[in-house]
Amino acid sequence: MASLEWCKNQKDGLQLAEPSENIAEDYLQNAEESLRVLQRVMENGSRIWTATVKYYIEYFCVSAVLARLGISSEIHDCTIEAVEFLEDQDVIDEGVSTRLKKSKELRIENQYNLKNRPVDVDIDELRELMLDMKEVKDNLTKRKVNEIRSKLFS
Q1: What's the CA angle centered on 110, arms 104 and 116, to 5 degrees?
Q2: Are 81 and 100 in contact (CB under 8 A)?
């Protein structure tokens, strides 16, 4: 797993960006759209695409919070590191990073390693994650955004 320092030193790792409510909302809309896709994929029984879409729903949800904070990352392990940091700062509830890691690992096993492992999906839990991340995003004040950015990039 990557570390925060390593991630901040990578070209596509953790970087400061302009905090954006619009991009954050776009990520949440992508999560919502992906949830509809997931339901259709599950009907077809594809474990590869179920794992992939499930992971991206979770990834889009946390990316919404990062966009609101003005933190960007194109390296998924670095995004997960940022989520762990936000858990430590009591911005995001504990367990989201662990959930994201497990979903990412299953996606890789099914999509790239062709393991065809079963995918446990609870649509209500995914909806709850979306609502939780929307609430986190909506409750971030300018002061809190600046505090988090300062702590992460000091």
Answers
A1: 140
A2: no
* Tokens representing residue 146 in the block: 């600046």
- CA dist 72 and 19 (Å) reads 10
Which residue stretches of 2-154 are H helix?
4-8, 21-44, 47-69, 76-88, 96-111, 123-139, 142-152
Domains of the chain: 17-152 (1.20.120.330)
Distances (CA, A) of 95 to 131, 133, 141: 16, 13, 23
For the stretch 103-144, pLDDT in tens is 999 999 999 998 999 999 999 999 999 999 999 999 999 999
**CA-to-CA distance for 90 and 97, rounded, in angstroms?**
13
